[in-house]
Design a protein that fits this description.
single chain
C-alpha cells in the first residue's frame, strides 16, 4: 500500500473533514481472496453469486403425512373416511421413489420428494396414522413400528392439489442472482451459499487491526495498581470497537514510555497488521513517545512512509497522527490517550478506515437530526467542532456527563455523539442538533 504524499507544517490546524479525507484517500480496500464459507463470515462479497440449482431442487413435502391422489380423498370426512392402501415410506434423501397409484398412499416425511403419481399431501393429523384408532397426533418411529409403512390409512379430510407441497424453485430458481457484490456475509447469507452448493466464495478479507496503548502508568486489568498507576482501558475499548466494525483485532499490552521499545513493538506487529492503531503519546509532553518514535520520514528502503502528527480543530481529540509504516506501507492511526478522546477519534477516523479496507461503500456511522434535551445550554469552544456524548431516543438527544475527555463512565452510557459545529459556541435546549449514532 503506497502512502499518499502529505504536507508537513506542524502549525497547520486541520479540520475534521480534511483529516478524514486524507485517511480515506490513502487507505485502499484489501485485495480479494477465496475463502471457505465459515472463514468468509463478516467479509464483503466481491462478485455476484448466481444460483446453480433451484431451491428446493424438487417438489417436496412440508409436512409429515401421506402423499395421495386428490380424487382419492375428495369428500373424505370423519364419518366417511377415505381408506387407502399404504405402499411404503418416502423419507428425506431417498433416491428410489415409490409410485402412488389410484387408491394408494405413501407415508411421507417433511422434506421428502413428492413421489410420482401423488398430487398432494395430507398431514398425519388428518388421518389415523394407519392405527385405526381415530385421528393421530403424529407418526411412530419406523424403527419402533415398521408396520406403519404397510396396511391401510384412514383419511378424514380432503386436500386440494399440491397442498403442503413445496414447489421446486419456490425459494430461488436456477440462474437467479442469490447475492450481490458488496453484501456482508452474515449467518443467513452463509446459509444460502451452502444451500446452493457453494463451498468457497470470493471476498475481501476482514482487515487485521493491531491496537496498542502506550504509557508506563498503565496496568493490565486484574493486576494490582501501584502508586500513580491506572488500568489500561483504551486498548480494550479500541480492540472491541475494531471487532465491532468488522475487523479481526489484536490487542497488544501497554508499551512503556520508551521510544525504542515502542518502535520495536510496532515493527514486530507489522507481520499481522493491515492497520495499526496506537493510543496515547501524541501530544506535546516530554513523555509522548509515539511522536518521538514515529515522527520520521521513511528511509530510502521505504519511500513515502512516515507518520505525520497534527492538530485538529475538534474537541475532544485535538492531537492526531496518521501515515504509513513498514515495507508494505501499513497505515497507522495514532490517537490521543484520554479515554473519551481516543474512543471519539476511533469512531470518526479509525472505523471508516476499517470499513474502507473491507470494501464497503458506506463506511460511516448513521447520522440524524435531533432535538436537544438539556437543563442548560451547551457551550463549545470557538473554532472547534465538538463531539459530546449523549443518549438518543424518539428524535431527542440528551447529554451524558460533561466535556471532560477522561469520563469513561459517561461514555459507557452514551449511544450517540452530539455534534456542535466550529462556528457555534452555545446550543440552547430545544435546538435541533446533528447526532452521530454509535449505539
Amino acid at each position: 500500500m503506497s502512502a499518499a504524499p502529505r504536507t508537513t507544517g506542524q502549525d497547520h490546524l486541520w479540520s475534521v473533514d480534511e483529516h478524514l479525507e486524507d485517511i480515506l484517500t490513502t487507505v485502499r480496500p484489501l485485495e480479494p481472496i477465496e475463502l471457505q464459507l465459515l472463514d468468509a463470515q463478516g467479509c464483503v462479497l466481491v462478485e455476484d453469486v448466481t444460483v446453480p440449482v433451484s431451491l428446493p431442487p424438487f417438489d417436496n413435502s412440508s409436512m409429515d403425512g401421506y402423499a395421495v391422489r386428490v380424487s382419492d380423498v375428495a369428500g373424505a370426512s370423519a364419518e366417511f373416511p377415505a381408506v387407502l392402501a399404504v405402499v411404503g415410506d418416502v423419507a428425506a434423501g431417498q433416491a428410489d421413489l415409490l409410485h402412488v397409484g389410484p387408491g394408494q398412499a405413501a407415508r411421507i416425511m417433511t422434506g421428502a420428494p413428492l413421489p410420482p403419481g401423488a398430487e398432494t399431501v395430507v398431514p398425519v393429523e388428518w388421518t389415523d396414522g394407519g392405527l385405526g384408532e381415530g385421528p393421530a397426533t403424529g407418526m411412530r418411529a419406523r424403527s419402533l413400528a415398521p408396520e406403519g409403512a404397510e396396511g391401510h390409512v384412514h383419511v378424514y379430510r380432503p386436500a386440494e392439489a399440491r397442498a403442503h407441497v413445496r414447489a421446486k424453485g419456490s425459494d430461488v430458481k436456477s440462474g437467479d442472482r442469490a447475492l450481490e457484490a458488496g453484501t456482508v456475509l452474515g449467518p443467513p447469507q452463509i446459509a444460502l451459499l451452502a444451500a446452493i452448493g457453494r463451498g468457497t466464495v470470493r471476498v475481501r478479507p476482514r482487515p487485521r487491526v493491531v491496537v496498542m496503548s502506550t504509557g508506563s502508568e498503565l496496568v493490565q486489568p486484574g493486576e494490582k495498581l501501584g502508586s500513580g498507576q491506572i488500568y489500561d482501558s483504551n486498548s480494550f475499548a479500541l480492540t472491541a470497537a475494531a471487532r465491532d466494525a468488522g475487523a479481526i483485532a489484536y490487542r497488544v499490552g501497554a508499551v512503556a514510555d520508551d521510544a525504542e521499545t515502542l518502535r520495536s513493538t510496532i515493527e514486530d506487529q507489522l507481520v499481522r497488521a493491515d492497520l495499526l492503531v496506537t493510543t496515547g503519546g501524541v501530544s506535546v509532553g516530554a513523555y509522548d513517545v509515539v511522536k518521538e518514535a514515529l515522527s520520521y520520514v521513511g528511509d530510502e528502503d521505504e519511500p513515502g512512509s512516515g507518520i505525520e502528527f497534527r492538530k485538529l480543530a475538534m474537541q475532544p481529540g485535538k492531537p492526531q497522527g496518521f501515515g504509513s509504516i513498514g515495507p508494505d506501507h501499513t497505515p497507522l492511526l495514532a490517537l490521543p490517550g484520554n479515554p473519551v478522546s481516543s474512543y471519539v477519534s476511533f469512531e470518526l477516523f479509525v472505523r471508516p478506515a476499517i470499513r474502507t479496507l473491507m470494501g464497503l461503500e458506506d463506511v460511516h456511522r448513521p447520522r440524524t437530526r435531533a432535538t436537544l434535551t438539556a437543563r442548560k445550554a451547551l457551550t463549545s469552544p470557538k473554532g472547534r467542532r465538538q463531539f459530546l456524548r449523549g443518549t438518543y431516543a424518539d428524535g431527542s438527544v440528551t447529554p451524558v456527563g460533561g466535556a471532560g475527555s477522561h469520563l469513561v463512565a459517561a461514555l459507557a452510557h452514551a449511544d450517540a455523539l452530539i455534534v456542535v459545529p466550529e462556528d457555534v459556541e452555545s446550543v440552547e435546549p430545544g435546538s435541533e442538533v446533528e447526532v452521530v449514532l454509535i449505539g
